[in-house]
Amino acid sequence: QVQLVESGGGLVQAGGSLRLSCAASGRTFSDYAMGWFRQAPGKEREFVAAISWSGGSAHYADSVKGRFTISRDNAKNTVYLQMNSLKPEDTAVYYCARKNAYSGSYYLLSAYDSWGQGTQVTLSS
Q1: b/e map of 74-99 (b: 16 or more CB within 10 Å)?
Q2: Residue ranges in 1-125 assigned as alpha helix (H)
Q3: Is the dihedral of CA 87, 89, 95, 98 positive or negative?
Q4: How many CB atoms lie within 10 A of CB 11?
Q5: Alpha carbon distance 102, 107 (integer Å)
Q6: pLDDT tens digit string along 32-78?
């Protein structure tokens, strides 16, 4: 039922930065944890980052830890992914997703019940 729309992707030089946004519909946005996943050509969709409903707890894949920062603004129904020190291997379609209310893991695709259409991030080197 929730609608998620990602934006902010593009072509970026290695070492550069991008800020992705995910705008969500629904008045109960703040009741859900949110996550970012990515999918590179020929690869499975993989976990990138997640943030708790309150914004007080964040989780990151090892591959992006220290480089990416997830945040949310519940008043704006928006979750962000600040990506710094981008690498060629970060090239992928990035998706935001809403986590199931009662699922436990932030890292599993199956824990999320709504997905955006994705935004392409391409690194040039």
Answers
A1: beebbbbbebeebeeebbbbbbbbbb
A2: none
A3: negative
A4: 12
A5: 14
A6: 899 999 999 999 999 999 999 888 899 999 999 999 999 999 889 89
